[in-house]
Amino acid sequence: MNRYPWWKYLIILAVVLPSLLYALPNFYGWYAAVEVRAPVGTLLPPVASMQDWLQAARIPVTRVVSDAAGNTFFFPNDNAQGLAETLLQNKLPASAQVVLSQMSAEPDWLSSLGGRPVNLGLDLRGGVYLLLRVDTDAVIKHALEQDSGSLRTFLRHQDLQYLAVNTIGPQRLAIEMKNATLAARAQKAVAEHYPDYAVTLQPNAVLDVTLTPDAAKRMKSDALQQAIVVIRNRIDELGVSEPVIQRQGAEHIAVQLPGVQDTQRAKSIIGSTAQLEFKMVDDQANMASALKGDLPPGTALFYGAHGTPYVLYTGTVLTGRYLSNASAGVDNESGQSIVNVSFNNEGTRIFGDLTTKNVGKRMAILLDGKVVTAPVIREAITGGRAQITGFSNLKEASNAAIELRAGALPAPVHIAEERTVGPTLGQDSIHDGVMAVIFGMLFVVLFMTFYYRAFGLIADLAILVNILAILAVLSLMGGTLTLPGIAGIVLKIGLAVDANVLVFERIREELRHGMSTRAAIDTGFKKAFATIVDSNITVLIAALVLFQFGTGAIKGFALVLTIGVITSMFTATMMSRGIIELALGKRRVQKLYI
Amino acid sequence: MELFKTRTHVNFMSRRWIFLGISALLILASLAAFLVRGLNYSIDFTGGTLVELAFSKTPDLGAVRGTLTQAGFHDAVVQTFGGDHDLLIRLRTQAGESSAVGTRILQMFQKDQVKYPDVQLRRTEYVGPEVGKELRNKGIMALIVVTLGILIYVGFRFEWRFAVGGVLAMLHDPILVVGFFAISREEFSLTVIAALLVIMGYSLNDTVVVFDRMREDLRASRSGDVAQIFNVAINETLSRTVITSFITFMVALSLFLFGGPVIHGFATALVIGVVVGTYSSIFVASPVALWLGLRREHVLKRQFLSAKDRNDGATL
């Protein structure tokens, strides 16, 4: 009789079948594809004419899929894909996004069941990884500057006479009041009106106004969140397929751009603050004395792209916050590269008032503190549209337009870490990794078959299912397979057989002690089980810690190891046992092939 | 096939002082190498810039160095990587330097089409100084947390003398691997840290199997000769230890031979780690437990206690 209960076979099937099914998409490979998308409000030429271009250039196309977002062209190889990208980029209008992408070649029935191949990490796919540090201190500094201004207004409005409001630390202001009575009253009023600050009364009618740690933390966190939104918008404009943008810790943002090769452009678009400001030019100022540092009150010296100095009033009259759209183009008359901006309702009103009042004066437009252009206002502009000239080429203008559309970053960002993997290295790594898996697997399979004969074959089957289960879980979880992750699979092949070895050695031992075959199998599995759990948990601890502390590729390794430990405990015990019992059936067995 | 037809009878415990002595010496040598020579840290930890370029023909290292020096990169370290068509160029980060350096170097070589036709970018890496420090701290933290986690687990599952022996054996292994990296000047990168953690897990995995059997045998046996029982247990599990270690060693070797240059350091650490990990579970963990005075009663205690508790409950 088969002593293994039927419900255990059901469990085995319930694990093995989905593992096979969901590992399957990984074996279909990828189609090289190019996506063509048009941002909202722009149009693409008809698909037929794009196909004509490709045909004329003798680029083979296997399939074209059109949907609301645009068209996707499939190519038989990477070479055709690359050629097509260049061709389409040259022929299509600048606003169109041409994106290289990889499409899974799995059949439709598989994808309709939710099957999909595992994501490949940047180290295998090629692409750019950026770790950005958001300068959150700048956010606090900015907030403090603004609040010290508004505090003065507030005190004046409340008739609380003060002598001075000074910044005395990175998160601290001091208000000198006229006398102690006023100071006491001011303390109450300020504390009530500025809940982000802790207000304490100091000797000599001085109020200490300190930003509370909670408020500072919240501001920093908000800034980071906002920066993520802006960066995501910008990357969407760049046209990258499957970008990953994640918050990391209190002030870092990790960005993964698969397939991107033009690192420089990606970095400059993601990294620039894109703070658009409009300031009035002080035309009366004497430039010679200004350059010596003798500036009229309320003005400051700013520079243009080629080092041209401007004396500008420090007050910002309008910022990029009031923009509703920005697009790059070429001016019909002058042939210059320009950015057309349009303002939202409030911006239109402010800009209209401003230009009405200042006809004949010059207004400077600054991007990240640098003067882009400083045109003379010829007439009142009330239509809410303006044209920014002064870009040296169309590329510069379209980069600026992307940044302006996506909005300004709340604080400057710095690149803390950057890793670029070229496509050839990624392909080599996949090849090397697969080779290591094949050779590792081959060795283990041959050795186990040779050493444990029939039982060895069962162990081989267990290893195979184990690898497929790792792939399936990784695919379903949306996990990422990296080169160290592949190394993890290879290592796991070795570690996973340990459980089988433990069981088989124990069975042999019991047989030597003269136990009957059935009893030996039973005892072998039972006695080895506790040991298998104990010994796997130590590896699991290491894997989990690694997952917690590791970044990028290392995390992929930890993930594979963690999944592998869990799946191997199942395949080596329950599944192996099930197969053995099934094979032995109801027969009386005299000799085991072990 | 069976390597161990009959049970082996090697007396491991009688020579335990020799093995402990060897291990102590190796640990001292490793620590000395680590302290005196230090490790050849990768830019993961030091911060800096790394550029890997693929040339269409074997490049002249001297000429490449010359080109770099001319461009003002005086501290550039150039070496071949993987095959001899690939070059690795490493720069230490100077304060205020940015990730743009890597791109500049690439463009510099791409411009000189005559001397370097068809230069291809394999990868660039830039790690800012603050990140390098953070990664180093994270690595150290991870090692500490794994040690504590395993200590707690083994302490909970086994008697403390076993736990101490197991953890000492577990620490023994990464120390020797680090010693190897200090002596060989092999690059010590983040993936090597990952390998160290896995080695710790593996080492203890191996130890736990032996300990499990020792505990079982101690409980079953009536003799008080712990050393003798340890010997029996080690011999009983010897076939498993040898087979598993051999298989793990071979898969690590497969990674070492075929896994490619990117994970070379990782594979190197694993290959060494498997060897020392196997050694330590037999020759370090058990002798230490014995040395700490482990007796049969220690592993029986828990059973007695629980039996007594049950009795108390029944009589009341």
Automatic annotation (TrEMBL), chain A:
The chain crosses the membrane at residues 433-452, 457-477, 483-507, 528-550, 556-580. Coiled coil: none annotated. One of its GO terms (cellular component) is plasma membrane. Part of the Sec protein translocase complex. Interacts with the SecYEG preprotein conducting channel. SecDF uses the proton motive force (PMF) to complete protein translocation after the ATP-dependent function of SecA. It is a multi-pass membrane protein. Residues 414-580 form the Protein export membrane protein SecD/SecF C-terminal domain. NCBIfam families: 2A0604s01, secD. Forms a complex with SecF. Part of the essential Sec protein translocation apparatus which comprises SecA, SecYEG and auxiliary proteins SecDF-YajC and YidC. Residues 306-411 form the SecDF P1 head subdomain domain. This is Protein translocase subunit SecD. One of its GO terms (biological process) is protein transport by the Sec complex. Pfam families: Sec_GG (PF07549), SecD-TM1 (PF13721), SecD_1st (PF21760), SecD_SecF_C (PF02355), SecDF_P1_head (PF22599). GO terms for molecular function: protein-transporting ATPase activity. Residues 224-283 form the Protein translocase subunit SecDF P1 domain. It comes from Acidithiobacillus ferrianus. The keyword Endoplasmic reticulum does not apply. Keywords: Cell membrane, Membrane, Protein transport, Translocation, Transmembrane, Transmembrane helix, Transport. The keyword Transmembrane helix applies. The lineage of its organism: Bacteria, Pseudomonadati, Pseudomonadota, Acidithiobacillia, Acidithiobacillales. Belongs to the SecD/SecF family. SecD subfamily. PANTHER family: PROTEIN TRANSLOCASE SUBUNIT SECD, PROTEIN-EXPORT MEMBRANE PROTEIN SEC. Residues 1-98 form the SecD export protein N-terminal TM domain.
From TrEMBL, chain B:
GO terms for cellular component: plasma membrane. The keyword Transport applies. Its main location: membrane. It is found in: Cell membrane. Pfam families: Sec_GG (PF07549), SecD_SecF_C (PF02355). GO terms for biological process: intracellular protein transmembrane transport; protein targeting; protein transport by the Sec complex. It is a multi-pass membrane protein. Residues 116-293 form the Protein export membrane protein SecD/SecF C-terminal domain. The chain crosses the membrane at residues 139-156, 163-183, 189-211, 242-263, 269-294. Part of the Sec protein translocase complex. Interacts with the SecYEG preprotein conducting channel. SecDF uses the proton motive force (PMF) to complete protein translocation after the ATP-dependent function of SecA. Forms a complex with SecD. Part of the essential Sec protein translocation apparatus which comprises SecA, SecYEG and auxiliary proteins SecDF-YajC and YidC. HAMAP family: SecF_B (MF_01464_B). NCBIfam families: 2A0604s01, transloc_SecF. This is Protein-export membrane protein SecF. It comes from Acidithiobacillus ferrianus.
